[in-house]
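Lecture 7 notes: from sequence to structure.

We start with a single chain of 162 residues. Read the sequence below before looking at the structure.
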Amino acid sequence: MILVSNHVSYWDPVLIGSALTRQVFFMAKKELFSIPVLGLSLKCWGVFPVDRSRPDRGAIKRGLELLKQGQVIAVFPEGTRSKTGALLPPNTGVAYFATKTGAPVCPTAVIAVKGSSWGLWRRYSLRFGQSITFSGDRKQDLDAVAGQMMQKIQELLTGSAL
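Now the structure, written as tokens:
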């Protein structure tokens, strides 16, 4: 399964990973792995690096291997945190995973709770949507598939998917 989510805080991976009973494998920007304690911790938690400046064959290979093994991977299609909370344009890497493997995609929304404190300790809520499958037809337009994923996340954010 592939979890796709908006990305609004540093806490998003922790929130999503702790909400599930299965291990979730996250992609994270490679720069985080150069921070001594954090990099080692990320590796221990099964996080794998991705070079966001180019198509990263190593990250693609790792993601495909995990999906083939029946694991859950989580991807933030926006590729970075949104400072405003508005969805950013998606990258197509997650669409490639979905169309290449036919793995079910679970849209997920991280929502800041209104009225909660700002900063590091702000409260968040999660919404998980209905899984969708993109048939494993690699000829699908990856931009369109990524756009459909983001539309499902937007529906969860606005409550129209409930």
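Residues 93 and 121 are 31 Å apart (CA to CA). Keep this in mind for problem set 3.
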